[in-house]
């Protein structure tokens, strides 16, 4: 169904940090439960209940029900005692979590009552269709071509990343397998040339030999062949551990992983990438693929995907080709902010106009602070890469666990699938056994319902998710500006807050340092203790008034990219080399409320006091 | 908290096929929602609502809320139109799905409101503890030793199986890495000996070189080394496609996978396994591991794990060792039926007594029909294998998606982990970053809550889950016996039902054949059409009165193991060789109500009529 979608009011889409929309939540919850119960009752209404009023009146029934009630008392107590208050409008500035969309919580709950398993169409016709639709919607959000691209929901970003490297590995090996099975199609090509064929060339070639496809696949990397020939997997130096796990699991191995330096603002250095690829080429070592990150989990930075794509085009002319996977687990949904009401990527010079029309930012100054051509160009170029990880459970504001992957060319699916592509439902173009085309097997239909419903309520463009992204970004910039001039007086010492770098996205990193302190270890200790008192570690969660998270930037992972920052706040290069790491406080700004200037101002005063208190406790420990 | 657990009445634990317990479900649902809302309101009660009464009265709010209501009308319609009626007490005899436990649906929904992410303790203290507890409970269900074993929840059985082969691969390669890094510890050992060290020996050896652990790990299979040296991965001939995917993904490759024949009752032939391992040993090809299946997805059969373990002991004395992974995705929870009130494995001669005391079967005859020493011994021996896949979302009656894996020796974790084991919370013995010890990253705390709550309500022994297993098994045997003498008169033809084999578990396979028909293709067509009319394919789901599923046993996967059955129902060996496959109807008997003799008899009459109708339609098409 196509709806006339009204101007979206984000306030109607969350339970509310004080449960303001509990009435609406319960209304829809009970509606969905009642409609489910009615469905049960009316399937073959001639069938009678098997649990009778007498059963329900028996002591064994009552005892069991009371036992269950006791367990729920305990569950409720545990959840209320040991959960994080992400829902707060302005006190939680830590881990990547917040309020999730009321419609997805409700959709998940509703669909769970039917318990569809999207592994097979047979067991979940309704939610399988929703997953297929949601996959195409995510493709459209990446400006992948309709009809040529495909996507699906998976457990999380690590699984999506693993599936990405699985695609890359099997695809890269196909030309070597073709050489064994159908050598006439790659006649005259050297091994180097075979290992540098583009994805398009490989897929076009596979199209020419449909009868031999199974045999070619059987001799591809899936057989165990060629794993050591496929070359290097290049990732940014700020390497997320999921990429190390992936390379381990997929068998190309950690020895095939190389980290490319990031610059002082934590973006992969594309010049260094080029240099390294040329060095490898000189040794006839191919590049299996390059990972660009859209929203790094520690800094929220967005790699220059446009420059990566341009580099590939340049090198392709020289006979060097590499697969590009974009890890946009975190930042993927943010592409919605760049799509206009018709889902077209907005020309740069029209952005102000479109944002204004859709009330994406309440404060144009903050919009201008955030939006750079670099960020814009990076998002634009995502449509040109082979595969992209996007987590609905991050910027999709959908409850855990919902990851996703999209592929630019649906034919890539053959490289990893376990059945011929004709195993599809007639007309529907939906696999009868989705499990044969993806990494996982059984999977909740409820997740698909949660994602599908969220996409229906909030279109994946500037009118829907784009607005939510704007709210989150604006909140992040309010927090960033709040931190910039922040000073505290703690037991006679002045403690100054130093934000790390202007964020590309909604992640704000920062540190506290005592004025004049030149001992980096001491500063690290201060920030670590501050984190302890601003988290579950040393606070009573429910009475703590300010939450944050932390991370370490250490030389083994970051090289010297933090040096500029560390020097800027008063430490010497020697001190950096001595201590070898800097402890960073980290705030993912997801609150859908904190962009509002009045709300933010209210909380700014409160959290300033709370930070003061937590700093006082932290200082006692260093 | 430890409860006085009353005698469990299963009727109090499900919503009921006619929504009989809708009152109890809604009572607890609203309790949990209200307690969550109260928690939001009372976290820093001085903070005011950010969504005001005026906001809620605005037209943008109302329009957005109405838009959301419209989307839920569509969602509800889609779910009610295109979902399967698994909930029915006696009409659904197909795919592995049914009513799930009311407490887990409720726990999932409740915990989802807090949206914990169990990837990191920091973001989910409560549900991380629940996951750790649930893991230990699953270990206990396998009689793995407390304190020495470990387990966790994962997305599904395919992921658990992949993690199992990841453990096996990395462990098997460690001795080769030790030879590079600390050769003095494996002095004098040949490569063959290194590749045949037992898991215990490897782990003990690793314990001796803690300082070199990281270096050894870096040279293990995770580096990309040795993948072609580790030997064969042996699986039963009825190979589930998840094992082919796993070998592909993990890089040992499909060429390393060998299928061991099953016998005519679809169990791995342990004599053939021995023969094959000896043949390989004669060529100095090691065995990476052997997969035993507890509950095959197509036949519900249970491999002779005891004989597999005994074979390993015998061969170990000859210097041949292999890892054993048990794929009990389906049958894992059934081990609860063999554990007494104190979680001890029940001696065989005490089973009748314990079952009677706990009312596990209502009909002792059916219990005797099912329970064989073979099945008992197979379950008993599970405690001796390295790792086991167990899916809570199958026989745990927990909604999708909830898989799990347990490992006998917690030290195995080091072979795949990405951080030193000291990255644990003090005292809690729970990883600070679970994602560094498992295949996935982000994962729903709600899943852990659902599993934990189910385990709290239903202990994992004969008093809890064991009773539920008994109900399911008894229902399966009622259905099996119902099919055994079933004949239909369709347009003057007699159609006879032929159950496949006496099931080890709650899966009943069967076919229909026209009396006197000797054309196997014709029979296959009949059964396929019968499936079409008994599923979403050619029936209107909601008005169809009998559901089943189907599968094909074809020579490429099954060899000639179906021949005995095929001959038994009147086809010649030539006919089998000509057609090369038999289409099988397949019923997973999960209904928690169909064990009741009165309920079953009521439905037997009804589904007999429904089968008659669907056969009439099917016959028209052949």
- Poorly predicted ranges of chain A: 421-427
Report the largest inter-chain contact.
Answer: A-B, 170 and 170 residues
Give the integer mean of the pLDDT values of chain A.
Answer: 96
Overall spatial form of chain A? globular
**CATH top-level class of the domain at 157-390 in chain A:** Alpha Beta
Category by helix and strand content of chain A: alpha/beta
CATH architecture field of the domain at 157-390 in chain A: 3-Layer(aba) Sandwich
CATH topology (level 3) name of the domain at 157-390 in chain A: Aspartate Aminotransferase, domain 2
The fraction of residues in strands of chain A falls at 5-15%
Distance between the termini of chain A: 61 Å
Q: What portion of residues of chain A is helical?
A: 40-55%
Q: How is the biggest beta sheet of chain A arranged?
A: 7 strands, mixed
| Total strand segments of chain A | 13
Number of helices of chain A: 22
Oligomer: homodimer
| Rg over alpha carbons of chain A | 26 Å
Q: How are strands sequenced across the largest beta sheet of chain A?
A: 2-8-7-6-5-3-4
GO biological process, one term (chains A, B): carboxylic acid metabolic process
Keywords (chains A, B): Lyase, Pyridoxal phosphate
Protein name (chains A, B): Tyrosine decarboxylase
Domain L-tyrosine decarboxylase C-terminal (chains A, B): 475-615
